[in-house]
Each structure stands twice: as C-alpha cells, then as structure tokens.
Amino acid sequence: MDVESAIRSRRTHKAFRPDPVTRDLLDELLEVARWAPNHHLTNPWRFRVIGPLARAKLKESAGPEAAPKLDRAPTLVAATALRSEDPVQDQEDLCATACAIYAVLLAAHGRGLAGYWRTPGVLRTQRGLDALAIPRGERFVALIHLGWPWQEKRPPDRLPAENFITYLD
Ligand SMILES: Cc1cc2nc3c(=O)[nH]c(=O)nc-3n(C[C@H](O)[C@H](O)[C@H](O)COP(=O)(O)O)c2cc1C
After folding, report:
1. Which atom of ligand 1 is nearest to the CA of 11?
2. 160 in a domain, yes or no?
3. Nearest CA to ligand 1 atom 27
4. Rounded to the nearest whole angstrom, what is the distance from the C-alpha of residue 118 to the centroid of ligand 1?
5. Which of 106, 114, 115 is closest to 144 using CA atoms?
6. Which end of the chain is less congested by CB atoms within 10 angstroms, N or C?
7. Domain extent for 129
8. What digits encode the pLDDT tens for the residues 104-144?
9. 0.85 surpassed by pTM
10. Residue range 22-43, pLDDT digits in tens
C-alpha cells in the first residue's frame, strides 16, 4: 500500500477479534515509531505494552463503569512522551510523539490490523498512571488499541481542504 492510500484508508476501529497481536508483530510496529521526525533526535516516545496484570490494574483504577471499555481491544499499548524542562523542547517532543503514534497506527493498518487512538479519562488520573507505572517525567499521550478488525469501517466526513489552507502573499 502506498503512503497516501494508507493515510486515506486508515480508520478508527472499536470492534476487534479476540486474538492478540503477537509480540513479533508488535516489535515490528513499534520499531516504525523511531523513524518519526523528532527535533534534535530526542527520541521522546515511550511505549508500554500492557499485559494482563497491568490491564487489570488499569481497569480497577478506571472503576466499574469505565472498565469494560478497556477490554475492547485484545492488545493495548500506552504511549507517553518524555517531559522536558525546556518548554520549547517539551512541546516539540509531544508533537514528535504524536507523529510516532500515527506511524504505528499506519504501520498497523498497512499490515491489515485495526487501530484506535484513545485517551481515556483514567489516564488523566494519578491512579491510572500508577497502574501502568508511568512516572512523573512522562506525559500520557495515547492508549493505542490494536487487534484484527471485526468489520470494515467507513471514514467520517472530513472538511474540504480549502477550509484549512491559506496561501499568504
Ligand atoms: C489526540 C487524539 C485523541 C483521541 N482520543 C479518542 C478517544 O478518547 N476516544 C475516541 O473514541 N477516539 C479518540 N480519538 C480518535 C478520533 O476520534 C478519530 O481519529 C476521529 O473520529 C476520526 O476517525 P478516523 O480515525 O477513522 O479517521 C483520538 C484521536 C486523537 C488524534
């Protein structure tokens, strides 16, 4: 699949088959992250593949109402960005981490996997961050859901490009 087709056809999936993504395949996907652009090559992204114990802790932190949503995907990966005391680097590292996450989602899509970038409320709480051993020096960015798709997804409508493009004289 060429890059532009991958960008256009990738979709957020929320229904997955039960079989998890194998470790070998995860290693392949997460390796792609390191090719994301990052200023001064800070490599600011960190990925934690969530095992059964960590998922149970996260669900407990989320509480009974939010916990079932954490079982949607067979494989969950928490993506964080290293914090920097330099505000410019901090912002650039957050942007670079978002690029890396998108690269992982596109790599997954290119292999026929389904993905979903989720930012659940539990990972805005200290309890949730503790459940995944995310230290204060890192900022939570995405809980990447991965698995094999249950069904085809249609893209939500997008704004026409002229809505967000300005050519300055
Ligand atoms: C920073 C970020 C946070 C997101 N958080 C959520 C989320 O918490 N829940 C959700 O359903 N989708 C979340 N999404 C996915 C978007 O809702 C989704 O990309 C959008 O609906 C467009 O659909 P598409 O990915 O199929 O193009 C998030 C996406 C981004 C980039």
Report:
1. 26
2. no
3. 11
4. 6
5. 115
6. C
7. 16-149
8. 999 999 999 999 999 999 999 999 999 999 999 999 999 99
9. yes
10. 999 999 999 999 999 999 999 9
